Amino acid sequence: MARPVYIVDGSRTPFLKAQGGPGPFTPVDLAVQAGRPLLARQPFASTAFDQVILGCVNVIADEMNPARVAALRLGMGEDMVAFTMQINCGSGMQSIDTAYRYIQNGQGDLILAGGTEALSYSPLVFPASGVRWFAGLATARTTLAKLAAFLKVRPSYFKPIIGLERGLTDPITDLNMGQTAEVVAHLMGVTRQDADAYAVESHKRLAHAQEQGYLKNEIETAFDRRGKFYDHDDGVRPDSSVEKLAKLRPVFERPWGQVTPGNSSQITDGACWTILASEDAVHKYGLKPKAVIVDSAWAGLDPSVMGFGPVLSATKLLKKHNLGLQDIDTWEINEAFAAQVLACLAAWKDDKFCREILGLEGAAGELDHTRLNVDGGAISLGHPVGTSGNRIVLHLVNAMKRLGTKRGIATECIGGGLGGAMLIETV
Prior knowledge:
It is built from 15 helices and 14 strands. The strands form 3 sheets. Strands 1, 2, 3, 4, 5, 10, 11, 12, 13 and 14 form a 10-stranded mixed beta sheet that branches. Strands 6-7 form a two-stranded antiparallel sheet. It is globular. Helices cover 36% and strands 19% of the residues. The chain has a domain at 177-215 and 293-421: Peroxisomal Thiolase, Chain A, domain 1. The chain is of the alpha+beta class and 427 residues long. The longest helix is centred in the middle third of the chain and has 21 residues, at 192-212.
């Protein structure tokens, strides 16, 4: 029989806005900063874990397999098995899901699952024409051949492209993620004012959570090599307003688009870890579970409308467990774009969409905004791609414990035309 799998603890770094150059922490630095205090407070040795699984999308050249590098720096032992996974925005949630399946099937009892991303370390990439020129110069055998190759140089060969910009463009549709948000917004009739109003609410909710200290037990203070410390998500704008956001120009579809820098997720650095345990591990170490993972679901769809990923994946879970939208007390939908989140909510209310795409008998209904992203989301605190899926699961658990709710779903859209969702119940 499948064994129950518990979430017993977790922590993350503050999410820090990218500043136009390499930030104070690499992906592994961030993972270590989040992991050290988390492991130090456990009633078991860090070597007691069966394995480490870490999501990371933009792995830097100096940290190949960041899961293994982080595990070694965290003192988890030379024999600790650790591997890194990449499924774009779903990487952090996939690490939890993989750990969940291992423990459920009896292949482990204690697993550290996380996500890390330093988008400020996204590399600069030379254009293909420049790479070919460098290759020709490097392979020229004689002095005359080298001179001939050198004389073919063009200034454009030295104009680098930000790797993140390339990475956020789908290679099948040639649409960047912002453009896919424009597509789903257009299909579901989401207006610019709707998107801006949602973004303002995200900032206000995060600011309120910070003021009330709701995130203190979730965030670990990070210290850089110069001794500077970081103790809060620094992207929040408490003074945001619809009037201010209305002044911003569309980024991806000018001049009539809905998506602007103000109603999009922020480019951010951050890491998060979650500890998963079997019932045997809970009893062995005297752990106090916060929640149990009930199930997870993944869905694929046309990459041009990848923003609907949460609708498809979460509905899979609901149907499998005979639940409706209103049976879920607390929701976390990763805020890739305000227009994208609102398009998902509109899709659940649309009779035709629910019948033809989701296979339901009619509209699923309206998701109560008071149950959704209660402490803000990626628009206000940022979206370190490989981390966000882990963060929304951990924060869902913490928010449910605080609110006294029983059942929750964390879900997200994933670049490339995917969606992921996880059903959680508090213990």
